[in-house]
Design goal:
Blueprint (H helix, E strand, L loop, with lengths): L1 H23 L5 H7 L3 H30 L4 H23 L3 H20 L1
Helix pairs in contact: 1-3, 1-5, 3-4, 4-5
Length: 120
């Protein structure tokens, strides 16, 4: 079960690296604009905000990777903390921006958190 939990945490971290790349580097390019369905004008107007969001996603990914490489109890605690952050951010994003965020961010985080807790 520990291997499955580590794989799921790694996948959530990879998801947040993907979001970082989309929001920080590709926001005003075709992949980034289609990510949220924005036209060129809207992408330009929201680029700084998106880059800020991307940076936060990078911090989530870094924390999850830290949790994977750190020994216990630090690694376990870091995984739990950062997965809870992912879940809270996903629920808040779903409530305030787009319900898809609940399934794209909060649900994977919750599944990974469940696996981490069961593996402990």
């Amino acid at each position: 079960m520990e291997i499955l939990a580590n794989v799921l945490v790694g996948l959530v971290a990879a998801l947040h690296v993907y979001i970082l790349v989309m929001e920080m580097f590709l926001w005003q390019k075709k992949p980034g604009m289609s990510f949220h369905g924005f036209d060129t004008e809207m992408a330009r107007a929201t680029a700084a905000m998106a880059a800020n969001h991307g940076l936060y996603n990078g911090f989530l990914a870094a924390g999850l990777v830290w949790g994977l490489v750190a020994g216990d109890p630090t690694g376990f605690r870091a995984q739990v903390f950062f997965l809870l952050c992912v879940i809270v951010a996903g629920v808040y994003g779903a409530a305030t921006a787009n319900v898809r965020i609940l399934f794209a961010q909060a649900l994977p985080g919750a599944v990974a958190l469940a696996a981490v807790l069961v593996a402990q």
